[in-house]
Amino acid sequence: MGSNIFNVLLILGVCSIITPLIVAQQLIRLDIPILIGVSGLLLMFGWDGQISRVDGVILASGAILYTTFLIRQSKKENNPDVTEEYLKEFGEPVPKTGKQIFIQIAYVVGGVALLVLGSSLLVKSSVAIAKSLGISELVIGLTLIAAGTSLPELATSVVASYRGERDIAVGNVVGSNIFNILAVLGFAAIFSPTVSRFLTLLLTLIFL
């Protein structure tokens, strides 16, 4: 949840300093209400002081349904402006050979492996810092780990703002927050049910 707070306050704050942001109609009509809805759902799940495996399954299922919906929605919408911008940026798509596909798969596998390794090191180091300073792991999670995990979103949104793609900057934050709740918390709770403090959860969601 700390990552979501950083996304809203830091990333949107920095990007709005760079350039005034545009909020797309889809975000207002669909994505922001979904974010509010899943935040309320998380608050309800945390009422008893834990996010159980059943709660995790429900959240993870929501992530899968949301992803499926977005894919189908994007196929229905054929925006000529987006297509023209893509062709201008990358040119006509060239069919890839078997070797090129294998290389791309290797990049994905390598990236995932490095991501898992980096995440493990981040968590272990943060826990060690928390113990040495005598602060709770919750505070470290809401600050240090949250800031670290928000850096990719910060980079993406800042670059999008500089390039004038202001709707991407906002959409990136909203989409990331939805997936943090549904996918990250959902799958984490499936593997290991999470203990949550309801008051802390409530105060955190108020910032969102």
Short description:
With 208 residues, this protein is mainly alpha-helical.
Structure, described:
With 208 residues, the chain is mainly alpha-helical. It has helices at residues 2-18, 25-45, 53-76, 80-90, 98-133, 137-162, 166-191, 198-207, and strands at 50-51, 194-195. A two-stranded antiparallel ribbon has the order 1-2. The termini are close together. The mean pLDDT is 77.
Our count of helices gives 8
Structural class: mainly alpha
Output the CATH class name: Mainly Alpha
**Unreliable stretches:** none
CATH architecture: Up-down Bundle
What's the Cα radius of gyration? Answer: 19 Å
> What is the overall silhouette?
globular
Query: Could you state the order of secondary-structure elements as H and E?
Result: HHEHHHHHEH
CATH homologous group name: NCX, central ion-binding region
Domain count: the total is 1
Mean pLDDT: 77
The largest sheet, given as strand count, sense and whether it forms a barrel, is:
2 strands, antiparallel
Number of strands: 2
Write the layout of secondary structure elements.
Layout: H1 2-18, H2 25-45, E1 50-51, H3 53-76, H4 80-90, H5 98-133, H6 137-162, H7 166-191, E2 194-195, H8 198-207
Antiparallel strand pairs: 1-2
Helix pairs in contact: 1-6, 1-7, 2-7, 3-7, 5-6, 6-7
Could you name the key traits of this structure?
globular; A middle domain of Talin 1; two-stranded antiparallel ribbon; 2 strands; single chain; 8 helices; mainly alpha; 208 residues
